[in-house]
């Protein structure tokens, strides 16, 4: 029995995720000059032949602090010091410093933290996985180590499907859709915080005053709707990328049984008409998008 419990304890120690440390200094500072910090990091990256990690997170976010704690471990400290310049950027309630993300082709922040890895020459190199860090607290530490070790040197690329002009055209459509809907989502969080800034008296009186309680409940209802829409949009975006990849792969297999660059050239020359099922958000209206809205 004793050996069983010793083995179980060892297994827990080996597999438990890195835990954020209460009381750690907060690197996500609202008053920091994020723009200047990014510019300085890019200059350092050019001088040192390194890459830049932009961590878009928040002090209130459990997983943002989880990633910070991963970064504080000795093995990650070595990887970061040798290969990266790191900038932590405060996004508030997903409404602050989003213009910096947009400069790298990222129209909105779906979850925190969101991690961009920038090469001074190649630009954003982890586009496909930058939104995957919203579970950083529970992520296995060795997975974190492997990820940042790999992206210290990896070059964006892909297979036959991803390098075809047909696939590139579909991706351009998806990015146009995400830019449009992402700008709307980001604006929703900005408007939500501007509205919240006018409601201090209502929040203070909620529970004792019927009108104040009603307004606060409305605010939280809209906040919930925006968060739910954000989750739906992230799922829809992933589905669109999968749909595009599968559609091009199926079109290639209709031309031949072995995927080769030459087969992709034939497909591109045929200019197939592939239509993606873009979601319609026409039924989703935020209060400020309705006539007569005033803060």
Please explain how this structure is put together.
This protein has 295 residues and is of the alpha+beta class. It folds into two domains: 18-150, Glutaredoxin, CATH 3.40.30.10; 165-289. The chain has ten helices and four strands; from the N terminus they run H-H-E-H-H-E-H-E-E-H-H-H-H-H. The chain has helices at residues 2-15, 34-48, 62-72, 74-83, 98-102, 141-150, 165-196, 200-205, 210-255, 261-270, and strands at 51-57, 84-90, 114-119, 123-124. A four-stranded mixed sheet has the order 2-1-3-4, sandwiched between helices. A hairpin with a 3-residue loop joins strand 3 (114-119) and strand 4. Helix 7 packs antiparallel against helix 9 (210-255). The chain is globular, with a radius of gyration of 23 Å. The protein starts with a helix and ends in a 25-residue tail after the last helix. Mean pLDDT is 90; it is low at 1-23.
In brief:
With about 300 residues, the protein is α+β, with helices and mostly antiparallel strands.
SSE layout:
Elements lengths: L1 H14 L18 H15 L2 E7 L4 H11 L1 H10 E7 L7 H5 L11 E6 L3 E2 L16 H10 L14 H32 L3 H6 L4 H46 L5 H10 L25
Parallel strand pairs: 1-2
Antiparallel strand pairs: 1-3, 3-4
Keywords:
four-stranded mixed β-sheet; 295 residues; 2 domains; single chain; Glutaredoxin; 10 helices; alpha+beta; disordered N terminus; globular
